[in-house]
Amino acid sequence: MLLLPLSQTTNQNFDIHHRIMPGLTAPSDYSTDPPRHPSLQINSKEPFNAEPPRSALVSSYLTPADLFYKRNHGPVPIVDDIERYSVSLSGLVENPKQLFMNDIRKLPKYNVTATLQCAGNRRTAMSKTKTVKGVGWDVSAIGNAVWSGAKLADLLELVGIQKLTAIAQFKGKHVEFVSVDKCKEENGGPYKSSIPLIQATNPEADVLLAYEMNGEPLTRDHGYPLRVVVPGVIGARSVKWLEAINIIAEECQGFFMQKDYKMFPPSVNWDNINWSTRRPQMDFPVQCVICSLEDVSTIKPGKVKISGYAASGGGRGIERVDVSIDGGKTWIEASRSQKSGIPYITDDDNSDKWAWVLFEVTADILHSTEVIAKAVDSSANVQPEKVEDIWNLRGILNTSWHRIQVQVAD
Question: Where do the record's region annotations for Disordered lie (predicted)?
Fold first, then answer.
């Protein structure tokens, strides 16, 4: 299928084109939402936000689509006609284009194993310190998958933006992703977000326009037919149900870039907050969670397997996972793996740099105690010991030591 040029000036025609030939539409209610796995813990029904049991996360390196956390802001969009579905590529470029799925599939296909994590993962634990605003996620707003599709860097070359470009010819510095998804935070407008142009045009950053997840077409909850995947960055930037890609001079001015997902100190509250004093959060920090035990677990005395996940943003690997079975007095180093039979080594060619690491250690637990896990990434970043030190009013980026209360039965 041919690439169709878009007019730079006739936005009216562009809107008419989309009304007549939408291909992908956003429903006004939740009656057409897809069915979901019965084991998911539902944190919000409308819009649907849910996470799997933590034990499911460590049962496999790749998270199945139906057990991958669901993070929605409105009713799930519907594909009316995949042949008519297209993405506009415009903004501060000389030759805007309209791209259909056939055009995107003709570009080289890449497979990138990457962990996506909601910035609100572990918010529930942070809210125990002091109430925060947001969906109450436990520890499973995270998942790991093989995403397949075209690299954004290849796509941008179609409108004349070369690889490793920081500023496009017409002073574009950022790439904005606009969804067909409508949400109340945008007053009924589309969900949108952006990343710096230098990241978008860097093939090594592995930013994808993904149409497959774990070798299958995307499911509706995960962005069918096309989504952005920005590895190493909070999930809010990996926009689903893509409708438009815009080259812009400044960061996206959408709600989720400017009035949300920013890291404030504990001293800031809703009375004195000034959103403009903080940059939008991008990379996620080093994170580590025990998944083989619940927050309060009763066990028999003896050997206990302690396993979970660890991940860091920005392509940083996991250098070490430490586990304590005496409340943090002494520590044992856990084994780390990504692929069975291949030892995980940080920054090794065999390691998936955007993906989580599964850890495991077996310890003798004879008395009731507190079990703790913490990770260190390849840049020697460590997790904060206390959640109070990183408490923030939106409850994002809770990466404090993960603590489990273990009661040993007689």
Answer: 25-51
How many residues are present in the chain?
410
pLDDT, residue 175, reads: 98
CA 39 to chain centroid: 21
Tell me the pLDDT tens digit for each residue of 125-174: 999 999 999 999 999 999 999 999 999 999 999 999 999 999 999 999 99
This prediction's pTM: 0.94
Checking DSSP bridges between strand 97-100 and strand 287-290, what pairing results, if any?
unpaired
Tell me the three-class secondary structure of the chain, residue by residue.
Answer: CCCEECCCCCHHHHHHHHHHCCCEECCCCCCCCCCCCCCCEEEECCCCEEECCHHHHCCCCCCCHHHCCEECCCCCCEECCCCCCEEEEEECCCCCEEEEHHHHHHCCEEEEEEEEECCCCCHHHHHCCCCCCCCCCCCCCEEEEEEEEEEHHHHHHCCCCCCCCCCCCCCCCEEEEEEEEECHHHCCCEEEEEEEHHHHCCHHHCCEEEEEECCEECCHHHCCCCEEECCCECHHHCCCCEEEEEEECCCCCCHHHHCCCCCCCCCCCCCCCCHHHCCCCCECCCEEEECCCCCEEEECCEEEEEEEEEECCCCCCEEEEEEECCCCCCCEECEEEEECCEECCCCCCCCCCECCEEEEEEEEECCCEEEEEEEEECCCCECCCCHHHHCCCCCCCCCCCEEEEEEECC
* Other CB atoms within 10 A of residue 191 CB: 25
Tell me what pLDDT residue 17 has. 37
Residue 13, Cβ neighbours under 10 Å: how many?
A: 11
Quick one: CA torsion of 241, 212, 352, 175, rounded to 10 degrees?
-30
> What's the first-to-final CA gap in the chain, in angstroms?
70
**336: β partners:** 359
Q: What confidence score (pLDDT) does residue 276 get? A: 97
Tokens of 318: 């996991």
**CA distance linking residue 294 with residue 308, whole number of Å:** 11
Cβ neighbors of 14 (< 8 A, separation 6 or more) are 6, 7, 88
> Per-residue confidence at 22, pLDDT binned at 50, 70, 90?
confident
